Amino acid sequence: MKSVSVSFGEGSYKITGMAVLCGGDVNFSFTGGTKPHIGAVSIAIYEPARDSATVSTVTVYEHRDDQLSSRCAKNAAAFLKCVVTVSVGIHIDHAASEDLKILVCNFNECYQRLIAKVSQIR
Which of 18, 26, 32, 55 satisfies CB 3.0 to 4.6 Å to 90 for a cystine? Predict the structure, then answer.
């Protein structure tokens, strides 16, 4: 199995993404903040007839990582045209809205860089 990882951001705003190629499919994992964990997991299944993907998500109680995992899974499956799983767990205690904006921006950049690497090695 091939794997690739990318990090973006600094300190408590650093996001790390890893992708593991599983045959023709891809498993992504993103963690960051001060308490990396598993907060939500999404699976997206590419549908060639629609050139889109269907997503199912499981969220850990009182977590909001599903917003990132479901969007990332749907976009990655449609772009890569395969089955994709995405695990996200990002946390900073007592995060203010500005902290959350930085984390989301860093997540988006990390995701874009990681999917570019994945598309190169597939």
Answer: 32
Q: Are 53 and 47 in contact (CB under 8 A)?
A: yes
Contact 84, 43 (CB under 8 A): yes
* Phi, psi values for residue 8, rounded to 5°: -150, 140
Q: What is the DSSP string of 33-89?
A: ESS----EEEEEEEETTTTEEEEEEEE-TT--THHHHHHHHHHHHHHHTS-EEEEEE
Contact status, residue 31 vs residue 7, Cβ threshold 8 Å = no
* pTM across the whole model: 0.95
Type of residue found at 9: G
The three-state secondary structure class of 118 is helix
Closest alpha carbon to 111 in 5, 25, 23: 5
- In this structure, is the dihedral angle defined by the CA atoms of residues 6, 113, 63 and 82, taken in order, positive or negative? negative
Which strands sit side by side in the sheet containing 3-8, from one edge to the other?
3-8, 15-22, 25-33, 84-91, 40-47, 52-59
